[in-house]
Amino acid sequence: MASEKITAIIEELKTLTVLELADLVHAVEDEFGVSAAAAVAVAGPAAGGEEAAAAISRLFARSPVLV
Known about the structure:
Layout (H helix, E strand, L loop, with lengths): L3 H10 L4 H15 L3 H6 L7 H14 L5
Helix pairs in contact: 2-4
């Protein structure tokens, strides 16, 4: 079960438009020095910073499209 903090973040993400989600992905990539696209292509378990990018990719993959 997700913590209240994580649940609040997820609820906030649901309110973002597709463009805002794309900006968020770029900001996370810049902040942590990772690439969400590269993490998707990686086979096997992710490590370090790639873990965050993989988590973001999974989140966006199952998020409804909001415009």
